[in-house]
Amino acid sequence: MLVIKVGGSVRRLDGLLLDIASVREPLVLVHGASRDLDALSTALGRPPRIVESVRGEVSRFTDGETMDQFLMAYAGKANKRIVERLRQLSVNAIGLTGLDGGLVRGRRRRDLRIRDGERVKVLHDNHVGSIDEVDTALLRALLDRGYVPVLTPPIAAEDGTAINVDGDRLAAEVAVALGASCLLIFSDTPGLLRDATDDTTLIERISAGEADAAVELIGGRARTKLRAAADARRRGVAAVGIADGRVDRPVITAFAGAGTWLN
Question: Hey, what CATH topology would domain 2-46+71-104+131-262 get?
């Protein structure tokens, strides 16, 4: 069982989708759509608001109106274009969000404490949360019938409200819940970098035990990726890699050893 996550920062997906078409083991693809959402929000006159939580996690502030746009970009355009291309490649893909069938449930953080320079602010009407549970029944039923689930946020909060969750965390939770043998996370860098501005500072190997200390040295979105990857490795996923989604054949290249792998 393989779980692949591709971030919305990866512009060209065809190489990845070609690789997925050649995979013969059961597979779940988890995707983001951050670039699509940025473009849509900007076009609609509400540019994205990126905030840093008091824990140092960088995310998009998602109020009710932004969630409407989120659904358009993630569950609409991005998800269905991926399904379209996979089916052209003879992959029996089916598009899902975490809302569908109660597949992924979590808790909504209605109020979000963020850093604003030296100050801490509280933002209200927050449609972002955390994951509590992945119900694998639907995914297993689809996988058993030869489908490739193409999964994206949002998920359902306690009261059924759609909430945004981190895509890397979603992929990690799905991998753990399904007992996946491998989790691959693809983004627009060669892997985890000691210096985000220098591709030669790639961290090729890191243990899950070293991840907490490394998080303090790595900035921005890479922190979230490392936390999710390390958590999946600690909880039983045997092989976890963070690799470059921009290369011609990302999956094949990652399995050849490229990127950052967690011991």
Answer: Carbamate kinase (3.40.1160)
